[in-house]
UniProtKB/TrEMBL annotation:
The lineage of its organism: Bacteria, Pseudomonadati, Pseudomonadota, Gammaproteobacteria, Lysobacterales. This is Recombination-associated protein RdgC. It is found in: Cytoplasm, Nucleoid. The gene is rdgC. It comes from the Bacteria. HAMAP family: RdgC. GO terms for molecular function: double-stranded DNA binding. Keywords: Cytoplasm, DNA recombination. It comes from Frateuria aurantia (strain ATCC 33424 / DSM 6220 / KCTC 2777 / LMG 1558 / NBRC 3245 / NCIMB 13370) (Acetobacter aurantius). Belongs to the RdgC family. GO terms for cellular component: bacterial nucleoid; cytoplasm. GO terms for biological process: DNA recombination; regulation of DNA recombination. May be involved in recombination.
Amino acid sequence: MFFRNLTLFRFSPAVADDLSRLDEALAEHRLRPCGPMESFSRGFVPPVGRGEEAPLTHVVKRCVLLHPGGEDKILPAAVINDELARRIEHITEEEGRKVSGRERKKLKEDILTELLPRAFVRQSRLPVYADRANGWLVLDTSSRKSAENAVSQIREALGSFPALPLAPEEGPRVLMTDWLANGSLPAGLSLGDECELRDPATATGAIARCRRQDLDSEEVKEHLRNGKQVFQLGLVFDDRISFVLGEDLVLRKLKFLDAVLDELGDSPADAGAEMDARFALLTLELERLLAQLETWFSLPRPQDA
């Protein structure tokens, strides 16, 4: 259950205390199947197990795992448009008249009404955990939209959930450019093998993307000397976690290295015990990484009024 991407929010100590009622609050927002005439449904699904009785949170120490989920009806636009064209053609041939814009709209609504109950349903879930001790909300996605939607679901369940996007006091782009240009990385941090460099002067400036490349090479440094800045940078933390850090402070391509995986040992026979072991290891490793991220970029935790 290791996360592959990290989008981060922060919350205050008072909000952390309020999360103690999360399991009770989510019970009224359990995901239900889409109705015949619904195009989507949103709610929470159990992180472990299935069924109506399975809990909607999983707690290890001060970290709470939850899964905002959803069901979406799949109705491809091409299918709707093909059926609409067929019906318009039929009216034109049978009645010898053109179909007005208003009638076209009504025909399309009728098609949606007929096809929606028969549409395929796509299920989704987004792993999220809240570190109540340190005020981090960690979402396994690189999509800002998906992250915001998940936070909105939590906010709706709790009634209030003032989790805030990261507000770095140190500019990520400037700091990462200095790391790459001057080799001045913080202790415990080393370069990976990919980066994205852009000319910040214009929105359509030149872009250089490097993958599987030595980032200390002259070719990369020449781009920097020509004024490009780092927008994404591959990094390795303590030889335990590799990731690509964006100037938006989203961590992509997160990977736990052998030094971490070896600590798991043999998988427990019980699924619940295995979940506990993996979640505990995940949160412990990320607690160390996020503490350093907080230091590098001066990421203040919101404080209570």
